[in-house]
Design brief:
The complex is a heterodimer of chains A (360) and B (480). Chain A has helices spanning 3-15, 21-38, 40-48, 69-72, 107-122, 144-156, 172-185, 195-207, 235-246, 350-359; strands at 65-66, 85-88, 100-103, 129-133, 162-163, 165-166, 169-170, 189-194, 219-223, 253-257, 266-268, 277-279, 284-289, 302-309, 318-328, 331-337. Chain A has 360 residues and is an alpha/beta fold. With 480 residues, chain B is an alpha/beta fold. Chain B folds into 2 domains: 2-259 and 450-463, Aldehyde Dehydrogenase, Chain A, domain 1; 261-444, 3-Layer(aba) Sandwich (Aldehyde Dehydrogenase, Chain A, domain 2). Chain B has helices at 40-56, 63-78, 83-96, 100-111, 116-126, 165-174, 190-201, 219-228, 238-247, 276-288, 311-328, 336-351, 396-400, 416-428, 466-473; strands at residues 2-5, 18-24, 31-37, 137-138, 144-148, 152-156, 178-182, 209-212, 231-236, 253-258, 261-266, 298-304, 355-359, 366-370, 384-390, 407-413, 433-436, 460-464. Chain B is globular. The chains are: A alpha/beta (360), B alpha/beta (480). At the A-B interface, β14, β15 and α10 of A face α12 of B.
């Protein structure tokens, strides 16, 4: 099967109705076979585990590639030079090595984003006035989040929607003008951005003594956590502060959980309660496993997340994350990162060694 | 649930000390440790008391007598029926998660290095004439000298390897310092038990040492202890040590023992059919002991090519032996983060060109064999070891050069001339201890921890200038 054929199949799978388990399994195995045939690094990885299209009969048997593999290997079905886009992680671990995801084209990625965003964030509204607290695609060409937010504005933003971050940080004059405008017109407003940028926005508005009473239907999307780029605050405090500053109920403060190593995002249905239940669309499934054995954890017990994202067509469908969570009714609770190994004695853990070696 | 008090606070009214409970251990076998939560004024009260009591009592005890007291306490701990030892054997495995049998054997082996003859060796290692700790002794250059320990020696311990605080506590007692030690949350009990037991066997010295705790990062309490101390010994991560250092007044000394990593080297001469099994078994023991959490625990084994057993084959032998140790002393239960770390490490190692990974499906041990990637790269602990095939062991020191401040022990299996030649080259790149394979994790009595002098570093010498004697003579009543 070639790229065009698998893309056509996937697009209709994504646009179509929610499939039954069988249909999902068939599609997943088809994508697995395609990736096994075209992604050499992945094929080697799978073969070493005895997993080939011949032996894998259920999507849960597709070997999960650890996210670190994206740092060490070229995980791609096309040659890197043929890729329309290459997204990179921020590279905060493993000595600054950055994980790369090559997309031969963005058609499936974009379809996945649009379908899912429309349903989970827009909630039936066609278009809204949007403000983006993140740099533009031009400023960050290798950021999957920049691309995602760009799509959001392009496809779901009313004229006048714009990015509110420049070289000098948040443009508060424009943010406040946007918020004023929304309050004046009474039309709902959407503020989207990195979680840490929203903290910066909260801090900046607080300093200016500015609060907004946004019209009903307004909403906020945050993603990515604080990453040491802003003060780190408990989620309850964060959503209380957002809700208080913008008069947007916590149930309309939606967190998106995405990864550079995926083509599909996960959303909650607001953060009235934290941690919120997250889930993906019908083409992405999440399992909570014991990282060593890959066996599913019993419901209610903490494990590591494995995502199977059929839209990640040019790379691999199934990745083993370093995020911990609990399986729940209708999705999973995201609990945070499994922070690697911390030495308990007087030896050094890998991260500590890298920092110390860098300083030595 | 078992409840245990941590700390040892002589001179403080026990009812006035607040306690915070912390729970340790797996579901169903939890123990609750009540940690002391001190106020600033209690810290200064404690320091005052310890300083005064050490001045009045400890300073007048001859060092030989102090050794006898420590020996008595250690003998009690070596007695498996002793109530303190029983508590250690029962509770330390729960607190730390290490295998019960490994803790028991480890403690006995460790405590044996603190008996009277070993303590005497400990002294002799640093002082040609240990009586210099008791009174003025002639100095080789002329004149007289006497060694004084600090009035208050503060210890900031870290980590959970059972018994580690004993090193510095014993060193503090031998130089007659008043001691205040801060235990880490990871293992808050051993030091307090030792202090209580010491008070039992030497009641006169009962108030010369104190064991405290505070939540890591409590700058107020940390600063007040540092202000009371004359000398501070700190253990832990570089960033924690830097934080301590920034709060130690310039007029006081701070001795930092940062976390370290260690490694092993196997000469081609040790790689023949008759010797390889035994070497691999000893190597596996060094990896398994305390699940590699010690600064002396190996992360990498450099294995020389050219023996009748190849490095790759050695990696397989090592894997076999680690599997054996898992039967005998199973790995402690890993946290999700640790398990995740092992998976990530295994995958990275496997993806390197020329890399092969052998490991238990449960994650209990992993051997990574690297034929091409010859850099020094730390393992992710918990019985994960990297075996690097190398043409000549003589190439290893150059590989280590960038990490000289982070290295400690080299375990070496090699014939005598090669051992000496390697030791010289390794010393030049910062390795401070060469050990036989199998002994990496049990330093001998009197070893120079991180290349330093355990006791000499703690004392100041007061010297009487050789001419002072003559000058005094001229003032004597018998002067003509």
């Amino acid at each position: 099967m070639d790229y065009e054929a698998i893309t056509v199949d996937l697009l209709s799978f994504i646009m179509g109705d929610a499939p039954n388990d069988d249909a999902f399994n068939r599609m997943a195995l088809k994508v697995f076979a395609y990736q096994f045939a075209h992604n050499q690094s992945f094929a080697k990885f799978a073969r070493a585990r005895g997993k080939t299209p011949r032996t894998v009969t259920s999507w849960t048997d597709i070997p999960a590639v650890p996210i670190n593999a994206f740092k060490a290997l070229e995980m791609t079905c096309c040659r890197p030079v043929e890729a329309e886009a290459m997204f990179m992680t921020s590279g905060t671990t493993f000595g600054g090595l950055r994980g790369k995801s090559y997309h031969k084209s963005l058609s499936v990625y974009d379809a996945s984003m649009r379908c899912n965003f429309k349903e989970r964030f827009m909630g039936g509204i066609e278009k809204m006035h949007m403000g983006i607290l993140f740099p533009t695609v031009e400023e960050m060409p290798n950021s999957s989040l920049a691309h995602y937010l760009n799509l959001a504005v392009q496809d779901f933003g009313l004229p006048g929607s714009s990015h509110l971050i420049g070289e000098a940080g948040i443009d508060f004059d424009r943010l406040i003008a946007d918020l004023d405008h929304a309050q004046m017109t009474g039309r709902p407003y959407a503020l989207l951005g990195a979680s840490f940028s929203l903290v910066h926005a909260l801090d900046g508005l607080e300093k200016r003594g500015y609060s907004a009473i946004l019209p009903a239907g307004s909403r906020i999307l945050d993603t990515g956590g604080f990453k040491g780029q802003s003060r780190d605050l408990p989620l309850n405090e964060f959503y209380d502060a957002l809700s208080h500053r913008f008069s947007v109920p916590r149930s309309q403060c939606i967190n998106m959980y995405g990864m550079t190593e995926l083509s599909t995002q996960f959303y909650d249905s607001g953060n009235a309660v934290c941690p919120s239940v997250k889930s993906g669309p019908h083409w992405a499934k999440t399992r909570v496993v014991n990282p060593l054995t890959g066996a599913a954890m019993p419901k209610g017990e903490t494990g590591v997340l494995i995502h199977t994202d059929l839209a990640h067509v040019n790379i691999v469908t199934t990745i083993l994350t370093e995020d911990t969570g609990i399986e729940t009714e209708g999705g999973f609770l995201l609990l945070g990162r499994a922070e690697g190994t911390e030495a308990k004695g007087c030896s050094m853990a890998v991260d500590e060694f890298l920092i110390a070696a860098g300083a030595a | 649930m078992i409840m245990e008090h941590a700390g040892y606070l002589p001179g403080l009214d026990a009812d006035a000390v607040e306690r915070q409970a912390k729970t340790y251990g797996p579901k169903g076998a939890e123990i609750s440790v009540l940690l002391p939560v001190l106020h600033e004024d209690q810290v200064s009260q404690l320091a005052c008391h310890v300083r005064e009591q050490a001045r009045l009592k400890l300073k007048s005890w001859p060092v030989g007598q102090i050794i006898d007291a420590i020996d008595l306490a250690v003998a009690r701990l070596l007695d498996r029926q002793d109530p303190y030892r029983r508590r250690m054997d029962q509770l330390l495995p729960i607190i730390t998660g290490y295998d019960r049998e490994m803790v028991r054997l480890g403690l006995t082996g460790y405590l044996k290095t603190f008996r009277k003859p070993q303590l005497q060796r400990f002294l002799a290692e640093d002082f040609v004439n240990p009586a210099i700790l008791d009174n003025f002794q002639p100095l080789p250059k002329g004149g007289m000298g006497r060694a004084f320990g600090p009035q208050i020696l503060a210890h900031v311990w870290a980590g959970n390897v059972p018994g580690l605080p004993l090193w510095s506590l014993v060193a503090g007692l031998l130089v007659k310092a008043g001691n205040i030690g801060k235990v880490p949350s990871a293992e808050p009990l051993f030091a307090g038990w030792f202090a209580q037991l010491f008070a039992e066997v030497a009641p006169e010295l009962a108030d010369c040492l104190a064991v405290v705790w505070w939540q890591g990062g409590n700058e107020v309490l940390e600063t007040s202890v540092l202000n009371e101390a004359d000398l501070v010994l700190g253990y832990g991560r570089n960033e924690s040590l830097a934080a301590i250092q920034s709060r130690v007044p310039i007029t006081k000394r701070f001795l930092a023992f940062g976390h370290k990593v260690s490694f092993a080297m196997i000469s081609a001469a040790a790689l023949n059919a008759s010797k390889v099994s035994a070497t691999a078994r000893l190597m596996a023991y060094d990896v398994a002991r305390y699940d590699q959490q010690g600064c002396y625990s190996p992360h990498v084994v450099f294995v020389e090519c050219g023996g009748s057993v190849s490095p790759e084959r050695f990696a397989q032998y090592l894997a076999h032996e680690l599997a054996g140790f898992e039967e005998k002393f199973p790995l402690r239960t890993l946290s999700l983060a640790e398990a995740s770390g092992i998976v990530a490490w295994r995958n990275m190692e496997e993806m390197l060109p020329g890399g092969q990974v052998f490991g238990a499906a449960s994650g209990a041990w992993t051997v990574s064999y690297q034929a091409e990637d010859k850099v020094f790269s730390p393992s992710c602990l918990n019985r994960t070891i990297r075996v690097v095939g190398i043409d000549s062991l003589a190439d290893v020191p150059a590989i280590l050069t960038p990490f000289r401040t982070l290295l400690q022990t080299a375990g070496i299996a090699a014939p005598p001339e090669e051992l000496l030649a390697l030791a010289s080259a390794l010393g030049e790149v910062g390795i401070t201890r060469i050990a036989a394979i199998g002994d990496m994790t049990s330093p001998e009595a009197g070893w120079h921890h991180d290349g330093r002098f355990n006791l000499l570093d703690l004392v100041e010498i007061t010297e009487i200038d050789s001419r002072a004697d003559g000058a005094a003579d001229r003032l004597a009543s018998y002067d003509d």
